[in-house]
Amino acid sequence: MSEAAPDRAPASGYRRAVGIMLLNPAGEVLVAQRLDFSGDAWQMPQGGIDKGETPLQAARRELKEEIGTDKAEVIAESRRWLAYDFPAELQRRAWRGRYRGQTQKWFAMRFTGSDADIDLETEHPEFNAWKWVPPSELTRLIVPFKRQLYLDVIEEFRGLLKLS
């Protein structure tokens, strides 16, 4: 695991991206089940930063593209970029081997819509199911190669979370 300093560009070889910890009023976190992974792969919304886009703009766009709504307000931004490496077999497949992993700026957001606003049938669907889970469940649901990243995100936003 490596990370870039907060005020510098992320390390080379890593795709610049964002992640969103979307919290409902009960303090639960939205996770969605990926279409492109076999097994039970759940994750928080995330995605790449397009050219000319700020991390916050990317986060709002990714919410809309992945879960069909951007009804959320930012309550915190990670102090630093958090990174993870792809496993070797995924490194070769993902983005034609251009990246060894992703470095992400994370945002904690409060969901301001209703569950009916969440619609996974987007233009380019990435998920087939979603649910709200306690923050303590995140590391159990995520694929193993992202587990440390999720621990880092939980630590980053610890003061906002209802941890059991």
The beta-strand count equals 8
Shape: globular
- Strand proportion, as a percent range, falls in 25-35%
Main β sheet profile: 5 strands, mixed
User: How much helicity do the residues have?
Assistant: 10-25%
Gyration radius over CA = 15 Å
Total number of helices: 4
Structural class: alpha+beta
Low-confidence stretches: 1-9
Helix-strand topology string: EEEEHEEHEEHH
How far is it from the N-terminal to the C-terminal residue, by CA?
26 Å
> Overall pLDDT, averaged?
89
Write the layout of secondary structure elements.
Elements: E1 14-23, E2 29-34, E3 42-43, E4 46-48, H1 55-67, E5 72-77, E6 82-85, H2 88-93, E7 101-111, E8 127-133, H3 138-141, H4 147-156
Parallel strand pairs: 1-7
Antiparallel strand pairs: 1-4, 2-3, 2-8, 5-7, 6-7
Care to describe what's here?
This protein is of the alpha+beta class and about 160 residues long. It is about 20% helix and about 30% strand. The protein has helices at about 55-65, 90-95, 140, 145-155, and strands at about 15-25, 30-35, 40-45, 45-50, 70-75, 80-85, 100-110, 125-135. The strands form two sheets. Strands 1, 4, 5, 6 and 7 form a five-stranded mixed β-sheet that branches. Strands 3-2-8 form a three-stranded antiparallel β-sheet, with no helix packed on it. The two termini are about 25 Å apart. About 35% of the residues are buried. Mean pLDDT is about 90; it is low at about 1-10.
